[in-house]
């Protein structure tokens, strides 16, 4: 049987495929279409594709970053642009840091035998199952009250002078606070995925480098890292996805200047005025980065997903 | 000599950043939570100002019908979601494990739902379930049927459907990967022995996939307890407590009822529950592995 | 840094134009950070804030949040030694928590300060029921008017409940606008027969706060209370059962999916023409007249909240107060005074907000723009300040009441059983909070 030609299937099979694709993409497409409709059109249900597309919803959502004034708005209530930048800062920094820290740890767990290795490995696995909701209470308490620098101290005073604000300097309400908890949340997963990639790096390569006089750190950065690029890509996408999409902890930790997009969307589903068009537009804007990643790097995503489970 | 010390220190140097972060931001908070769960604590207080109340929070919760209901909703949700997703996901994998054109496109489209933010998934479905303007009821009415009260009387089911939509592809893709890495020889042997497709599936493919399926199932189960945003956006736990899963109840107790101590105790209950589940799954995996080794040995003898 | 400089420059420009005695002069260039809800009234406030900055040179930065979120945020902010917010809007039921925890400034010292208090403020023009309901604490029952009470906030965004009905539908079928509860319930259930596909009355009913709110809305006019004078829960008495029955009837005869409606959905279905009546807060009037949101523009008439055994519409809405940990308290008071002055109240009414003064409700310009304003003013007089208890533990009781009622609506739980359960649990909560110490 030659691998290159594809098996012929009966038409029912293709029909099934079409239905499956429709089911998985349909809701997203629906949201995409609705984000170009006015609320009146969405509610009155001029169904299907017969409507006049408008970018008004996107304009409303992005009113704080648009260079021009909008006629249909009296004031800009939705500060989407700012939230988008917060989301980017938080997601990108936490992804980079998680990867660096995570692959160092994964490397140590795979390559070295040391006291406490099994404990470390087991702990990593255990904390994977901790749901974010469980972290809500302690993180809220610690970040707001314990992880603080008194503003009367040198460092605290310095931060207040430079960045303004009032009261003691606490982790809550800062980008760093949210980034820290995201790194901690994602680390176990990243370590787990990367372990399975590092195992596959031939040990002989490392030996060779070491014989040439490389230090363990040089071996790690020059030999191992380049070889596990696909794993890094997969881990990066997953970490980014979680940091980008997370709502609960961010909403407990952020203040008015560090709100992320998911918080903005949930807030905007306020009870007085369900503005479907604008909500769908913000939802679409939030979904675009992950969608782009998926389309560009689906192979890495699938590798990453299967790496942990299938290869053990 | 110095070099040797350096080498001995290396693993710790590599582990240190991860260890520090996890201790500060995961383990310490978890201990802090355990400590807090024995206190009468509202969000306006620092933990130092709170009063120690012993096991009161745990006992109150144990007899609290709302908590019990929410626990049962959580378990029902997790069990239904995971079993339905496993059946559909594995079924689809078996069905689509063929050498066809465009498989990679198909897989790409399938993973889209799980990459999208839960908040967005929630709002998409909330719109589609809307009693009057929603897609489903509009469609039902256009073909002359009665609309369904999705997020009212059938809220739990609706929430489950949304989760199935989002996460079945995960199982599908893992199961497909497992299928494609099965030893061809065993399948060939079965075919030559004249096994029907059903027999191949039941006696060869599924048992061989079992280790992967169990891990997959465990992963999904853990994730099912993490679900919160989708439900928050769709129903906020209502109507009644019908979709108020524990994660949501914890967050409401902390923010709406302002009882951090009780919320911490609830978090602990949830953690214990997850621990038991994980441990049980691990034990099961070990037993399965032993059995599978026997099956494999038997299969080799047959050949 | 740059921002402060810019503000200072802006401040100077304003001060140059107003060299006369200017009470705002000392505060020019200050930036106030205020916390307002995402709510139609405060959306109207957003429109008039630039006017305040123009007149006074005080900048205002608004953090607008959905009101439950707003409360969470405030809980946290007010507990700090130094808070971010200079002025906050608070929901009526937060009054108890904030005053009890000593987190709101007593306003006496500001109204006594001749440099701050405007002699033309005319406090007797403020609708008194709301001042007592929203601003007062320390009087009867701790949260009502009384000789021992004092002022901690000023009502801003006063709402009461009102009945909106579809004039066209009522005319078409020769229906009378309901005056009493019996009439209203009868019509509510007649509508689906007369107009297939249309619901009678849209009410919120979703689990939690919504269901509880809808229930309380009927409880007061039907003669009920949550507590008697000794803090004994009496929510399960005859009036309570009647109110729950009314809610159930309304939901059963309501539009499709009514049992899961939050406020937004309930209003949405009225705006979309899916129901013939709407009984809830006055805040919706602006949207009903907005053609981009509403399909019933011009077809809606307004009537008083129907009578049960008494008139008793809700007192709701928001108050504004100054947190004890605020940085710019005096400037915040100036903003507060400006917003609730006759001038500010009229401006906000014209921008679509809910005025809090008698004079604004009678104002010719306002009535010309919003003809319903006179009816609303009349309704405000019948507002019942005690329709819902404002005590610190209310949040918990409210949540329990709301989820239990939702079960009545969706799972056919027996009403008496349900309310007995609520009463029992409420008693336990009250007991624990120490309300029976004196019995």
Structure write-up:
The complex is a heterotrimer of chains A (312), B (303) and C (439). Chain A is an all-alpha fold. Chain A has one domain: MetI-like (MetI-like fold), CATH 1.10.3720.10. Chain A has helices spanning 11-34, 39-44, 56-61, 80-111, 117-128, 132-146, 154-163, 175-198, 203-211, 216-227, 229-245, 248-253, 261-268, 276-310, and strands spanning 148-149, 169-170. In chain A, strands 1-2 form a two-stranded antiparallel sheet. Chain B has helices spanning 2-36, 56-62, 65-96, 103-115, 118-128, 135-142, 155-180, 184-192, 197-224, 229-234, 246-255, 260-302; strands at residues 39-40, 51-52. Chain C is α/β, with parallel strands linked by helices and 439 residues long. Chain C is built from 19 helices and eleven strands. Chain C has helices at residues 2-17, 40-56, 67-79, 94-100, 108-111, 128-135, 167-172, 181-194, 209-219, 238-252, 263-271, 285-288, 329-340, 342-350, 358-362, 364-369, 373-381, 394-411, 415-433, and strands spanning 31-37, 59-65, 87-91, 136-137, 150-151, 154-159, 161-166, 199-202, 275-281, 300-304, 316-321. Chain C has a five-stranded mixed beta sheet with strand order 2-1-3-11-6, with helices on both faces. In chain C, α2 links the parallel β1 and β2 (59-65). The radius of gyration of chain C is 22 Å and the shape is globular. Classes of the chains: A mainly alpha (312), B mainly alpha (303), C alpha/beta (439). Chains A and B meet through α1, α4, α5, α6 and α8 of A and α1, α3, α4, α5 and α7 of B.
How are the secondary structure elements laid out?
The complex is a heterotrimer of chains A (312), B (303) and C (439).
Chain A: H1 11-34, H2 39-44, H3 56-61, H4 80-111, H5 117-128, H6 132-146, E1 148-149, H7 154-163, E2 169-170, H8 175-198, H9 203-211, H10 216-227, H11 229-245, H12 248-253, H13 261-268, H14 276-310
Helix pairs in contact in A: 4-8, 4-11, 5-8, 8-11, 8-14, 9-10, 11-14, 13-14
Chain B: H1 2-36, E1 39-40, E2 51-52, H2 56-62, H3 65-96, H4 103-115, H5 118-128, H6 135-142, H7 155-180, H8 184-192, H9 197-224, H10 229-234, H11 246-255, H12 260-302
Antiparallel strand pairs in B: 1-2
Helix pairs in contact in B: 2-12, 3-7, 3-9, 4-7, 7-9, 8-9, 9-12, 11-12
Chain C: H1 2-17, E1 31-37, H2 40-56, E2 59-65, H3 67-79, E3 87-91, H4 94-100, H5 108-111, H6 128-135, E4 136-137, E5 150-151, E6 154-159, E7 161-166, H7 167-172, H8 181-194, E8 199-202, H9 209-219, H10 238-252, H11 263-271, E9 275-281, H12 285-288, E10 300-304, E11 316-321, H13 329-340, H14 342-350, H15 358-362, H16 364-369, H17 373-381, H18 394-411, H19 415-433
Parallel strand pairs in C: 1-2, 1-3, 8-9
Antiparallel strand pairs in C: 3-11, 4-5, 6-11, 7-9, 7-10
